[in-house]
Amino acid sequence: TPADAWWRSAVFYQVYPRSFQDSDGDGVGDIPGILSRLDHLQELGVDAVWLSPVYDSPQDDNGYDIRDYRAIATEYGTLDDLDQLIAELHRRGMRLIMDLVVNHTSDEHAWFRAALADPDSPYRDYYLLREGTPDAPPNNWTSFFSGPAWRWFPQEQLWAMHLFSSRQLDLNWEHAPLRAEIVDMVRWWLERGVDGFRLDVINYISKPPALPDGDATIGALMEFTGVEHYFAGPRLHEHLRQLRAEAFDPYGAVSIGETPGVGMQLGRLLTGASRGELDLVFTFDHLDMPGRVRFDDYRYDLAYLRDHVERYERGYGSTCWPAVFFENHDNPRMISKIDPRPEHRIALGRLLAVLTLTLRGTPFLYQGQELGLVNHAFASIDQLRDVESLNRYALLREAGQSDAAALANVLAGSRDHARVPIPWDAGGGFTTAQPWLEGDAQQEVWHAAAQAADPASVLSAYRALIALRRAHPEWVTAPIEFGPRRRGVWTYRRAAADVTVEVSINLTDRTQRLAGEDAGWQTVLSSPEHRWGRLTPYEAVVRIRRAQPANASAI
Ligand code: ISL
């Protein structure tokens, strides 16, 4: 992993295709729609797009259930459309990474159908299938989408493992021919010109062959039973090295692991330059406060984020390079977690822009984050579409909770908040039909067209910060130095030979005093009512100083 690899200083932008832009009036986003919005990405200044799955799929989990790895879902377009997307992004100087979902396939994948159809099929070994009786699943593992991690197939008298929905069956990575198929498939996409992959729940692929029961105490702590056996399974590192050596490295492809439950130490093993495994990992510890889970209704304290980041920076070490992100298609909007009061929305949107684009690491923006989108006030369960939300609601109702209580719980963490289509202009602009998922209209006043014309908007803040990275690329890979600790205020600097970037953030909803010299600094970003010496609620100020040696003086 060279220190000057392109992906270290690149800004990535995640497109969730279902919700980005519809081009043919069916209420569902598609690839031609993405092609029609590339100006937005180029004006924003992003270097690479991560495209969530567009493969052929029955869409039980919005494409994370793949039926055919080498075909495009008809509602999203054709292989030609995808080739055109690759070509058009490359023409504009941007790269494309795709989503690689290889922990599981759809129950409609040809491999799974063949495995069920014939006891002697070689595909039986592709999945985690066990003979048995309907009353006794092979172990006590639970699914992330509610209930046991096993589905019973009565005709075949077989259990099949599914860590996610019952229509997403786990693949058997112990089986060498399965691994060879995955390598072939990855190379097929790289041959088409894709620049790399985000690897879905990649740390879950290796399971101990005996599939032992999970520990009940750990299960209760982690909310899910069995996780300790597969979140870093016995052959994980070996499988990753094979993928890298046989598929990614020959093409110079970037590999970004989605690795839930992976902390700092394991993250170092997965991304250490000499280990030959992954380039970057997404870890999730910073998205919820300790002792909290996504479905808890609470206010996220930015002081926790500061402590977490400073601890990570001390421990992760300068040889590992973090992925910096606050949102994706699996989490509620971050602004809403911190402070849902509308009067703080723009300040928090800008604050998250500053953190995402100035902390040390590779930034990943999720669509709509650049508009400061917030959670939706869904009025009833009928408005939700996500399999996780719907299963959770059903389970809570079965357990005796009222409709209101179950809905409130689901809405605190629902993935649908981040999946509502993008408001492009005053008329919506996403589709001419009924969108596949509808949020509340309140968000539409924040549409992209209005923000593009407003220098004080969240969108303008993202554009200015990305421009600052492009204008002075040296600081982007420079170390980070934290200022002295002060309650409610976070300061840090990124010092390169020719330029120093200084960030001051108000972590609270109260005005804070701010000390430090003014001379020699140029303010790149602040709130419109900014005055040096104080920070307004949630204000984030970015200043630069040019052509001065990076000295050790405290902030
Ligand atoms: O592991 C978890 C326990 O909380 C989940 O949050 C998990 O991290 C997440 O659901 C994994 O996400 C990825 O794989 C899923 C898919 O539904 C998500 O959209 C995807 O990002 C299964 O493919």
TrEMBL record:
<protein>
    <submittedName>
        <fullName>Glucohydrolase</fullName>
    </submittedName>
</protein>
<comment type="similarity">
    <text>Belongs to the glycosyl hydrolase 13 family.</text>
</comment>
<dbReference type="InterPro" id="IPR006047">
    <property type="entry name" value="GH13_cat_dom"/>
</dbReference>
<feature type="domain" description="Glycosyl hydrolase family 13 catalytic">
    <location>
        <begin position="14"/>
        <end position="419"/>
    </location>
</feature>
<dbReference type="InterPro" id="IPR017853">
    <property type="entry name" value="GH"/>
</dbReference>
<dbReference type="Pfam" id="PF00128">
    <property type="entry name" value="Alpha-amylase"/>
</dbReference>
<dbReference type="InterPro" id="IPR045857">
    <property type="entry name" value="O16G_dom_2"/>
</dbReference>
